[in-house]
C-alpha cells in the first residue's frame, strides 16, 4: 500500500464490537492471533451489491469455506466484524477424511476485542479431515473507507451523484466484508461471484469466467470470476461501478486495463502507458513472470490510503493515478509514476511472497518503495529520480528517527489497532533506505540473485525477515561481496531491530595520517544523557579524499563492527592525506548515518565549497554536508558559525538536491525565528541566499519548456516558492499579475494562463496578498475542477490567507461533510491553515476545542487525524505552550485513542523546539548578522 508521505495518509482501526445476532459472550480464548488448528483451503464468495437506492446502499452474501483440520478442535474461530449473520442458516459438514459424520454448529460466541466469531461444533473436528462451512451475512456499504464501502462522484452532464462500491481490506478489514481467517499467513484461493444490476460493471482480482441472470431479481446478473492463486485475505478485491477503462496490454504480457469515472478517463493515458512498462521491468528484475492473466488499476474518488496493491486489481486515490497534462505539474507526474511502480512491485514483494505477520510489514513496504525507485529510474532516467528519492527518504528519516519516540523497522504487534501505526515513515522510507544501503554494499549481482532465490523459495507462501537474510547471505558469500566471517543477519538486524541511527565522529590525526571513528545514537532531544545513547550499528564505511575525489565507488573500504554484547568497537582508518586535504565519509550517502568531523576537516570542506571546485564533490554529498552541518548545529554538537559559513556557498549552487536539503533545514529554523524579534535578519539573509539562484533561473517567468533537465524544473518550482515567501526580486508582483490575468479570463475553468509548475506558488501568494473576492474565485475553481492534483493545489493555497475570519471559516468548511472537501483531503486544508503564521494559533485552538468532534469525524481511520498534528508540533516554541499542549493531551485521552505514537512524537518535537530556542537562538542570530 502506498501512503502519501510528504503526501501520505494512513489506516487506523477502531475496535467496534461485532454487530451480529450471536450472543456476545467473552470466551476463554483471548489471544490476539487465530488458533492454528484449522486452515482454509478455498473460499467460495458470493456477494449481491445494491447500488440503486442512495438511501439504502447495502450488500448481502454467503461464504463457503473449505477447511482442513490440522489438530482436533471443538470450534471454528474466525474473524467477523459489523456483519449481520443469520445463524439458523449456518451449516457445517465433513467432506473429506475418515468416517464421514454429520456435524453442525451448536452455539456461537463473539470476542469483540479481537473481532473473533466462534462457532462451537456438535462433533469434534478431527485432524486430517476436511470440512465445508457455509455462512450467510449482510451489512450496509459503509462510509468509513475500509472493508466493503461506498464512494461517489458527480456526473456533470446529468447533474447526478453516482454511487460505486469498492473494497479496502489491508490491514485487517476483510472481516468487515465477509467472515474469514483474516491474517496474512492463512493463504487460500478465492472464487468470487458478484451480483449486481446489469447497467454496472464488476471487476475483481481475476478475469471474468461466466455471467448469468439472477434467479429472482429482474435486470440483475451474477458474474463469476476465475479461481485465484492462493493469497492472503487482505489482497482480495472487488468493485461494482459504471467506470470506463483504457486497455494498454504489451505483447506477450498480462491483459492491462486502467479504470476511472467516465468524465476522467482522459486522465488515464499516462498511468496506462507507464504501468505495463514497469510491470515488464519487474518480470526481468525478479526473474519471475507476473503470475496472473490480467491486471486492472482503478482510480477511486474516496480512498483513505494512497493506493492498495490488491493482486490483479490495484486501487488508487485519484491523485495517485490520474494525470492531466493541462493541470498537473512535473512533481504530480512523478508521483503517479512512483505510486504505480510501488504498487506493481508489491505484486511480487507482498503478494507472491507475503510477510508471516505484520511485524515484518516493512518487508512489503520498504521493498516496494525501494524497488519502485529502481523501476522509475529504469523507465525515466532523465528524471534522476533515484537520487531524488534516496535523498528525500534520508532527509525524512534523519528527522523522524532522531526522536526517542521512534521505533524499530521490525516491531512486535499484538493488537489489530497497532498494525495501522506501522504504516509510517519507518516502514516505508527507513525500510527503503536500509535496502538501498545493502544493495550498495553487496553490489548488483549478489543483491539480485539473493532476492530471486528468496522469491522463488517462498512463492505463494509467507516469510520473515530472517528468511530474506539467509538468501542474501548465501548470495553474498557465493559472489564474494562479503567476508565469509560476516553474515547479513548480524549486519541488518542492527538496522531493523533497534531504533535510530548513528552519528559517527571522525577525529583525524593529521601527523599520523589516521582517523579515529566512534559511533553513538543521534538524538534531537539534548536532555537525554549520553549513557542512554548507546546502540551499535554495523556500518559499511565508504569514503574519499580531496586528492582522489572518487564518489562513484560506494563499496565499503572498511566496516564499523559491534562486539559480542552489542557494544560498539572504535575504528581507526589508516593512510589518510595530510592536513591540507579533506576527507568525506559516506559516499553518495549510501548509509543512514550522520558524520561529525573535527574543526580542521570542516574548514577544508568549507574552503572547497566557497572558493574551490565544489562541483567535484558529488551532488548527494553536497546535500549531505549541508544537512549534517545544520543538524549538528541544531543539537549543539557543532557551532552555528561553521554551519552558516558552509551554506554560504549556496550562492554558487545550481543543483536541486543541495537546495532541497538546505530549504528543509531552514524551513524548520524559520518557523521558530518568525515568532521572534530577530526575524528581520533571517529574512534579509534568506533574500541574499535566494536572489542569485532566482535570477539564474529567470525568476517566476515561464521558461519551463526550455529547461532540458527535469530536476532543474523541480529546482525552479521550489526556488520560486521560497522567493515569493521572502519577497525576493519581482516574485510577488509577477505572481499577482498571473493571477489577475487568470481572473480576467472569460472562461477561467477552461483557460488558465498561470504556468503549471508555479501554480501552487502563484495561488498561495495571491490569496496571501489578495482580497476576499480573490479567495472566493479560487474556492469556485476548486468546486468546478475535475482534476485531483489541481484540487489538492487549490486546497493548500486557500489556507494562505491572512484574514482571520476567512481562515476560521475555512477550518469549519473543512470538517463539514456537506461541503465540497472529501474527508480524505480534509487534512490538506487543515495543514495549510496551520502552517500559515496567521492561521497557526487559530488551527491549534480549533483542534484543541473540537478534538471530540474531529475524532468522530475520522473514526475509525484515526491515522488521518494524526496528520493534523505535524503543523502544531513544528511551531510550538515556548515552555508554556508546550505545557499547555501536554495538559490538553492528558485531558483528551479518549479523543486521541489510536494516536499514541503520533502524540508522543508531537510532544517530543515541541520539546526539541523549546530547547533549540533557549540554546541556539541568539548564537544563530549573531552568526546570521555577521554574514549580512
Automatic annotation (TrEMBL):
Protein name: Aminopeptidase
GO biological process, one term: peptide catabolic process
Gene: SP1029
Pfam families assigned: ERAP1_C, Peptidase_M1, Peptidase_M1_N
Family annotation (Gene3D superfamilies): 1.25.50.20, 2.60.40.1910, Neutral Protease Domain 2, tricorn interacting facor f3 domain
List of residues binding Zn(2+): 342, 346, 365
InterPro entries (alphabetical): Aminopeptidase_N-like_N (IPR045357), Aminopeptidase_N-like_N_sf (IPR042097), ERAP1-like_C_dom (IPR024571), M1_APN-typ (IPR034016), Peptidase_M1 (IPR001930), Peptidase_M1_aminopeptidases (IPR050344), Peptidase_M1_dom (IPR014782), Peptidase_M4/M1_CTD_sf (IPR027268)
Topology of the protein relative to the lipid bilayer: Lipid-anchor; GPI-anchor; Single-pass membrane protein
Record's cofactor remark: Binds 1 zinc ion per subunit.
UniProt organism field: Drosophila melanogaster (Fruit fly)
Similarity annotation: Belongs to the peptidase M1 family.
Domain ERAP1-like C-terminal: 582-909
Domain Peptidase M1 membrane alanine aminopeptidase: 270-495
CDD domains xref list: M1_APN-Q_like
Enzyme superclass (EC): hydrolase
GO molecular function: alanyl aminopeptidase activity; metalloaminopeptidase activity; zinc ion binding
EC number annotated for this UniProt entry: 3.4.11.-
All copies of domain Aminopeptidase N-like N-terminal, residue ranges: 40-235
GO cellular component terms given for this protein: extracellular space; plasma membrane; side of membrane
Required co-factors: Zn(2+)
Transmembrane segments: none
Site (Transition state stabilizer): 428
Subcellular location: Cell membrane; Membrane
Signal peptide location: 1-18
Active site, per annotation: 343 (proton acceptor)
Amino acid at each position: 500500500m502506498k501512503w502519501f508521505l510528504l503526501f501520505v495518509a494512513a489506516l487506523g482501526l477502531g475496535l467496534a464490537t461485532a454487530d451480529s445476532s450471536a450472543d456476545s459472550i467473552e470466551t476463554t480464548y483471548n489471544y490476539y492471533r487465530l488458533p492454528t488448528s484449522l486452515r482454509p483451503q478455498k473460499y467460495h464468495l458470493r456477494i449481491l451489491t445494491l447500488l440503486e437506492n442512495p438511501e439504502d446502499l447495502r450488500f448481502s452474501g454467503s461464504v463457503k469455506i473449505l477447511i482442513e483440520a490440522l489438530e482436533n478442535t471443538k470450534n471454528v474461530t474466525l474473524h467477523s466484524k459489523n456483519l449481520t449473520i443469520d445463524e439458523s442458516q449456518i451449516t457445517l459438514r465433513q467432506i473429506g477424511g475418515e468416517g464421514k459424520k454429520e456435524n453442525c454448529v451448536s452455539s456461537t460466541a463473539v470476542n469483540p476485542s479481537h473481532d473473533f466469531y466462534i462457532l462451537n461444533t456438535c462433533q469434534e473436528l478431527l485432524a486430517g479431515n476436511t470440512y465445508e462451512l457455509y455462512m450467510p451475512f449482510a451489512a450496509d456499504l459503509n462510509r468509513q473507507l475500509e472493508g466493503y464501502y461506498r464512494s461517489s462522484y458527480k456526473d456533470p452532464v446529468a447533474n447526478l451523484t453516482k454511487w460505486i462500491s469498492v473494497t479496502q481490506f489491508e490491514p485487517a478489514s476483510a472481516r468487515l466484508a465477509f467472515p474469514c481467517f483474516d491474517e496474512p499467513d492463512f493463504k487460500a484461493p478465492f472464487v468470487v461471484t458478484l451480483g449486481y444490476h446489469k447497467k454496472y460493471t464488476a471487476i475483481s482480482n481475476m478475469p471474468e469466467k461466466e455471467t448469468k441472470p439472477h434467479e429472482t431479481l429482474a435486470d440483475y446478473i451474477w458474474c463469476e470470476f476465475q479461481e485465484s492463486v492462493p493469497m492472503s485475505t487482505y489482497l482480495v478485491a472487488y468493485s461494482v461501478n459504471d467506470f470506463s477503462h483504457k486497455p494498454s496490454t504489451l505483447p506477450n504480457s498480462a491483459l492491462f486495463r486502467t479504470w476511472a469515472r467516465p468524465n476522467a478517463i482522459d486522465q488515464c493515458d499516462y498511468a496506462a502507458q507507464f504501468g505495463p512498462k514497469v510491470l515488464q521491468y519487474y518480470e526481468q528484475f525478479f526473474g519471475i513472470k507476473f503470475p496472473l492473466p490480467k491486471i486492472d488499476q482503478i482510480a477511486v474518488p474516496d480512498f483513505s490510503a494512497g493506493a492498495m496493491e490488491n493482486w490483479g486489481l490495484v486501487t488508487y486515490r485519484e491523485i495517485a493515478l490520474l494525470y492531466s497534462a493541462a493541470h498537473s505539474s512535473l512533481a504530480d507526474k512523478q508521483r503517479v509514476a512512483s505510486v504505480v511502480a510501488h504498487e506493481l512491485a508489491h505484486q511480487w514483494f507482498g503478494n507472491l511472497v507475503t510477510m508471516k505477520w505484520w511485524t515484518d510489514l516493512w518487508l512489503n513496504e520498504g521493498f516496494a518503495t525501494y524497488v519502485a525507485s529502481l523501476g522509475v529510474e529504469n523507465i525515466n532516467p532523465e528524471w534522476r529520480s533515484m537520487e531524488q528519492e534516496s535523498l528525500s527518504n534520508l532527509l525524512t528519516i534523519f528527522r523522524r528517527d532522531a526522536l526517542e519516540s521512534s521505533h524499530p523497522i521490525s516491531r512486535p504487534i499484538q493488537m489489530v489497532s497497532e498494525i495501522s501505526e506501522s504504516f509510517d515513515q519507518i516502514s516505508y522510507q527507513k525500510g527503503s533506505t536500509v535496502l538501498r544501503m545493502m544493495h550498495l554494499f553487496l553490489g548488483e549481482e549478489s543483491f539480485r540473485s539473493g532476492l530471486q532465490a528468496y522469491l522463488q523459495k517462498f512463492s505463494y507462501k509467507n516469510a520473515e525477515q530472517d528468511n530474506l537474510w539467509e538468501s542474501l547471505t548465501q548470495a553474498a558469500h557465493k559472489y564474494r561481496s562479503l567476508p565469509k566471517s560476516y553474515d547479513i543477519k548480524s549486519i541488518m538486524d542492527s538496522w531493523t531491530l533497534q531504533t535510530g541511527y548513528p552519528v559517527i565522529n571522525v577525529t583525524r590525526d593529521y601527523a599520523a595520517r589516521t582517523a579515529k571513528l566512534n559511533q553513538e545514537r543521534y538524538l534531537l532531544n539534548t536532555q537525554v544523557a549520553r549513557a542512554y545513547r548507546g546502540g551499535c550499528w554495523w556500518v559499511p564505511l565508504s569514503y574519499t579524499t580531496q586528492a582522489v575525489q572518487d564518489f562513484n565507488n560506494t563499496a565499503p573500504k572498511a566496516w564499523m563492527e559491534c562486539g559480542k554484547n552489542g557494544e560498539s568497537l572504535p575504528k581507526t582508518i589508516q593512510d589518510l592525506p595530510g592536513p591540507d586535504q579533506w576527507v568525506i565519509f559516506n559516499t553518495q550517502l549510501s548509509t543512514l548515518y550522520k558524520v561529525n568531523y573535527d574543526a580542521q576537516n570542516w574548514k577544508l570542506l568549507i574552503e572547497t565549497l566557497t572558493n574551490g571546485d565544489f562541483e567535484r564533490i558529488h551532488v548527494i554529498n553536497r546535500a549531505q554536508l549541508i544537512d549534517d552541518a545544520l543538524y549538528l548545529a541544531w543539537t549543539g554538537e557543532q557551532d552555528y558559525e561553521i554551519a552558516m559559513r558552509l551554506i554560504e556557498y549556496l550562492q554558487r549552487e545550481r543543483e536541486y538536491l543541495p537546495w532541497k536539503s538546505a530549504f528543509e533545514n531552514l524551513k524548520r529554523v524559520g518557523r521558530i525565528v518568525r515568532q521572534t524579534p530577530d526575524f528581520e535578519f533571517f529574512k534579509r539573509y534568506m533574500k541574499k541566499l535566494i536572489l542569485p539562484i532566482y535570477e539564474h533561473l529567470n525568476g517566476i517567468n515561464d521558461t519551463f519548456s526550455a529547461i532540458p533537465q527535469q530536476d532543474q524544473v523541480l529546482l525552479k518550482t521550489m526556488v520560486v516558492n521560497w522567493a515569493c515567501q521572502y519577497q525576493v526580486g519581482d516574485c510577488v508582483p509577477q505572481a499577482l499579475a498571473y493571477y489577475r490575468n487568470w481572473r480576467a479570463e472569460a472562461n477561467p475553468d477552461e483557460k488558465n494562463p498561470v504556468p503549471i509548475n508555479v501554480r501552487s506558488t502563484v495561488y498561495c501568494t495571491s490569496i496571501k496578498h489578495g482580497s476576499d473576492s480573490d479567495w472566493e474565485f479560487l474556492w469556485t475553481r476548486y468546486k468546478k475542477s475535475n482534476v485531483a492534483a489541481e484540487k489538492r493545489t487549490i486546497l493548500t493555497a486557500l489556507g494562505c490567507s491572512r484574514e482571520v475570519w476567512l481562515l476560521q471559516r475555512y477550518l469549519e468548511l473543512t470538517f463539514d461533510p456537506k461541503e465540497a472537501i472529501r474527508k480524505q483531503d480534509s487534512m490538506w486544508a487543515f495543514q495549510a491553515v496551520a502552517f500559515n503564521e496567521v492561521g497557526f494559533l487559530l488551527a491549534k485552538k480549533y483542534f484543541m476545542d473540537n478534538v471530540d468532534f474531529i475524532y468522530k469525524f475520522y473514526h475509525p481511520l484515526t491515522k488521518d487525524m494524526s496528520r493534523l498534528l505535524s503543523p502544531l508540533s513544528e511551531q510550538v516554541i515556548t515552555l508554556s505552550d508546550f505545557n499547555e499542549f501536554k495538559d490538553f493531551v492528558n485531558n483528551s485521552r479518549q479523543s486521541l485513542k489510536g494516536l499514541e505514537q503520533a502524540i508522543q512524537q508531537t510532544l517530543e518535537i515541541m520539546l526539541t523546539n523549546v530547547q533549540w530556542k533557549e540554546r541556539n537562538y541568539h548564537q544563530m542570530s549573531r552568526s546570521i548578522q555577521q554574514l549580512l
